[in-house]
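Hi V.,

You were right to ask for the full record rather than a summary. Here it is.
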Amino acid sequence: MVTDDPTVTNPDHYRTLWENDYVRVVEYLDEPGEQTTPHDHPNSVMVTLSEFDRRLSAGDRISDVHLEAGKAVWLPAQRHSGENIGETATHTILIELKGASAGADSGSGTLGPAI
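Predicted structure:
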């Protein structure tokens, strides 16, 4: 279950495009230098529409991520905040799983996509 829904905590960056009882499709957009506050993601598939560089933080854990445009990657359930540390805008689509498939953040797993 998503506690800090990113469409609520960071509405300038996340917006719901469509959802039903099984999945929610969310668009994410930001510009270089922009940051998000801490938020939660269920198990998701992330489709990158742009190439980008991000720094993800969860407590004392930090992970720098670079992804090319046109990739589909698994994003395990997690809580993090992010910052666009690159020179390009971030544009992604997240297909979030619901129900038992949503998973739960263990706090010690992958930070960012499992690539």
